[in-house]
Amino acid sequence: MQTFNLFENAIDSIDHGLQHLSDYPDELSLSDAKQSIMNLINGLDLLILEKLRSLDEEAIFENKSKSNTLKAEEAYKRIKNELNEEIEDWEFKAYAILKRLRNNAVHYEFSFGDDNIKNISLLIHLCLRFIETELDMEIEELISNDNYQRCRRVLKDLPFGEIIEERYVDAIEADIYAYSYSTKGMYSAVLDAPCGNCGREGISIAEDFYPYGKCVFCEEQYNIQACERCGHEFDADWEGVQVHEDGDYLCDGCNDYYLND
Ligand SMILES: [Zn+2]
Ligand SMILES: [Zn+2]
Ligand SMILES: [Zn+2]
């Protein structure tokens, strides 16, 4: 009986995922996109496990009897600090989101929207990163030349940096929404005004969400103050007035109110 080891199994999945890109860029049917994404996710999961195995042979098993291997997310937590090149949390989050979609797809209708090829590009990027940077192998030597050309084609058309950024923004927006939802809409995690640096509504006004006054998207720090009278929060470098040296502020509206009083 022919068997695959973990790494070969990963490469086989990736190879299969790339095979479904034979008609790209002329065409990418929903079915091919789905098969490609499923197989690439599978391959990436296995690469993560393989990385853990390369650090500690035993660590990939969930229990002593070695009957189950860890979930990729669990394995990732263990290798995170051992990576040759750090993967930013948000990069990994992009992949976690795809997995969530994948898991839904199994139970519900399969749909990655119009983003199929972008998702594929992201997955290829992460797979290559594990193969080359973490496992020290050359992708060209592992897959067919046709598939290698497909990889390059996708990455050339769709620079993964932008794709990851899109996914990153989606992920944070979901977190912002979840924060508000968890307070039954009573509190918002962010100021209802765009960040002057990145243009997104990401300036934190909830210390338990992100450092107060910092944009969650671009890290720009603002001098956000809350009006003593009405509680409205604003950028005190641009609006409102400081009414006490110890740091009490009034928003423009309330300041006008007092001035006209
Ligand atoms: Zn297939
Ligand atoms: Zn910003
Ligand atoms: Zn006010």
Topology:
Blueprint: H1 6-19, H2 30-55, H3 72-79, H4 89-107, H5 116-134, H6 145-157, H7 160-182, E1 224-226, E2 233-235, E3 241-242, E4 249-250, H8 252-259
Antiparallel strand pairs: 1-2, 3-4
Helix pairs in contact: 1-2, 2-3, 2-5, 4-7
The structure holds zinc ion (3 copies).
One zinc ion binds at residues 195, 197-198, 200, 202, 215, 217-218, 220.
Describe this structure in words.
Helices cover 50% and strands 4% of the residues. It has 261 residues and is mainly alpha-helical. The chain has two domains: 6-166; 186-259, no CATH class. The protein has a two-stranded antiparallel sheet. Strands 3-4 form a two-stranded antiparallel sheet. Strand 1 and strand 2 form a beta hairpin. Helix 1 packs antiparallel against helix 2 (30-55), helix 2 (30-55) crosses helix 3 (72-79) and helix 4 packs across helix 7 (160-182). The longest helix is centred in the first third of the chain and has 26 residues, at 30-55. The structure holds zinc ion (3 copies). One zinc ion is lined by residues 16, 20, 35. One zinc ion is lined by residues 195, 197-198, 200, 202, 215, 217-218, 220.
The helix fraction, in percent, is 40-55%
Task: Please report the distance between the alpha carbons of the first and last residues.
Answer: 90 Å
Using DSSP, what is the number of strands? 4
Largest sheet: 2 strands, antiparallel
Tell me the domain tally.
2
General form? elongated
> Helix- and strand-based class?
mainly alpha
Topology as a string of helices (H) and strands (E): HHHHHHHEEEEH
What is the radius of gyration? 24 Å
Per DSSP, the total helix count is 8
Proportion in β-strands = under 5%
Strand order of the largest sheet: 1-2
